[in-house]
Each structure stands twice: as structure tokens, then as C-alpha cells.
Amino acid sequence: MANFKTMTCTGVSLLLFFCLIPSCLAYNVVSFGARGDGRTDSTSAFLRAWSAACHSTSQANVYIPRGTYLVRTLNLNGPCRRRIEFRIDGTLIAPANYHAIGHSEFWIMFYKVSGLSVYGGTMNAKGHGYWSCRKGGKSCPQGARSIQFMWCNNVLLRGLTSLHSQRVHVGINYSSNVRVENVKIIAPSGSPNTDGIHVQNSRGVTIYGSIIQTGDDCISVGPGSMNLWIEKIGCGPGHGISIGSLGSSYKEAGVTNITVTNSVFTKTQNGVRVKSWARPSGGYAKNLMFSNLIMKNVGYPIIIDQNYCPDNNCPHQNSGVKVSQVTYKNVKGTSSTQAAMKFDCSYTNPCTGIRLQDIKLTHNDRLRRPAISYCRNASGRRGGTVIPRSCF
């Protein structure tokens, strides 16, 4: 139930409301000078509101009411003294000039915050100008992730809509016990490197009940990720859900205990994918479960690619990443490529322990060519009906 109180902070009267945390204090960014007119730079007001909430001895809420708020890069740093809630009822927009946030790695960063809840609202990073720069081969800034959680624990992100990120929409790095639910992520299919959600060096992450329509991976899982649960995702357009790319360096943390289940892929370049560079590495990906998935005109619905090379600048070596104990169960639908299942594994580190159970993938082809499976350096077993026929 909402709390309604009035207090004075640095001479400003603050109306405190919209707290879901019991007995919390709310800090309205408007009371700190923000203006929801879509033109006034409200960055400083947001930072002042965050600082006051973070230093509060009571559980606190930063509240963004309805309106459109122009903000540049926000460093929302912890640790905070108590649990904190960041509630967006309005819309945050980035400056029209992509350089304003493009030279940072992020637009909004939560850093070393524990016990954090982020609710609702819309973020529009206005990435179109930045994408045009990238596509034009110009000298461009590195580009910004829209919202980043770094070294954060016990986090809930719920109900956010993220539009047109310059790069990754939601980044989760070096964090634990993070739940992302009911988010909506949108960018054009041709937008470069706009992953929906990227998880790396994190554990205990759940991504649930979300729609992701973007120009790169709907969800990408990087090195050092473990105990990740992905469920009820609507993915497409985009490149699918990917473990990797792995093998960027030799001393690389592995990926383990990843589940993708009860999700739908629509016209994506890939379905569920494991990808690694063809170079030496001490990394690994193991205990991966892909189950109860529907593919609708998807390229390579099931794919392990250990010769990943998107830009033709290929290492031409053997991947050192060890891929093992991968299960595909109840995966059905249509493939836009004839190879509905593709296991292109490393000669020196073959893929092992692959299990296919109840697969039915047909080729969506006007010439009625049947779907096929492709194997290189891969071994495993099958159970139930497997269509196309297993190649091992």
C-alpha cells in the first residue's frame, strides 16, 4: 500500500508516495528539479534524487512521475544504506545527438547496489543516428548499453520497455540473484549489435515472461555465467538466444547450468545457439537444457557453431571451448534453412553428451526439400521421435 508523507530535504518539500517497499520514503525527481517536458536536461536532478534515496536510513524510493525526461549518462552508485526502489511511470529519453551518451559504455548504470527493484516505464535511447554511423563505416563512439547492472545483488527488473538502444538494451555483469520479468525490448531488425539482454560473469539470473524484438541476440550469455533460467520469451526478429560467443581469450570462465524453456522464436536468424571462436581457449559450456520450444520459420533452430566468425576475419584454428552435456527436448516447428539441426564442433575438442529428445523440425521450403541435420565432431544420443533424422 502506498505511503503519503511530506518531508523537507535541502529546503525542498517532497511528497512521498508510490512505495512498494513497506515503510519507505519516496524521492520524486521533480522535487529535485527534473522537468518532464522532453527538452530540459534533468540529469542532475535524477542524480540528486538518487543520492538522497541511497543515503536514506529508511528504505527508499526514487520516483519518476508521468512525463518525458531528457537525461544523459546516469551513474547510480551504491552501496546504499537500505533497500531501494527505482520506479518509472514516465519516459526517459536520451539526447538526440548520439555522442552525448555514445562515449560511455552505458546510459544508465546501477553499480554495487544490493536490494534493488526497478519498475515500469519506458526508456528510449534514440539509437537510429548511432546505427547509421556504424553502418556508414564512419569513426563512431563505442556506443552505450541502455541499462546496466554491475556488481549488483538481489535485483528485480519488472515491466520496463526499452526502445532503440545504441547497443545492448539490458546488461547484467558480475551480479547475482537477478530477476528480469515482463520487459519489452524493441529495436529494428537491422540495428547492429543491439542484444536484448546480455548476461556475463553472473549467477542466479532469471529472465521470464518477456518480449524481445531486436537486431542481434534476443538474449546472449557470456563467459562466467551460471545457474541461468530463461522462460516464456517471445524472441524475434533477432539472432535468437545464444550461449556465447565464447573463446575470445584463453583464460576465460566457463558457462554452466543454463535452461531455456517454454519460449517461441519467430523469423530469427538462429534458434538456440552455442557459438565459439575457432581459437585456443580454456573455456567451456556444459549442462545446457533447451526444452519446450516452438520455432516459426527460424534459421538453424538448433545450432552449435564452434567456427563462429561474423566478420570474415577468422582465426582459422580449432576452438578450445569444450561443449558437453547439452539437451534438446520437445523442440518443434519450421526451419527457414535446410539444416534444421547443425552441430559444427571443434576437431580438437569435439562436442559430447548431446541428447535429442522429441524433436520435430520441418523445412519451410517451397521446393519441399526435407530438413536435414549436420554433424561434424559431435556425438550424442536420441530418444523418442527425432525429425530430421539425427546425424549421430
From TrEMBL:
UniProt keyword annotation of Hydrolase present: yes
Keyword Transport on entry: no
SUPFAM superfamilies: Pectin lyase-like (SSF51126)
GO biological process: carbohydrate metabolic process; cell wall organization
Primary residence: secreted
Signal sequence coordinates: 1-26
Homology family: Belongs to the glycosyl hydrolase 28 family.
Name of the protein described by the UniProt record: Polygalacturonase
UniProt lineage: Eukaryota, Viridiplantae, Streptophyta, Embryophyta, Tracheophyta
Gene: PGLR_9
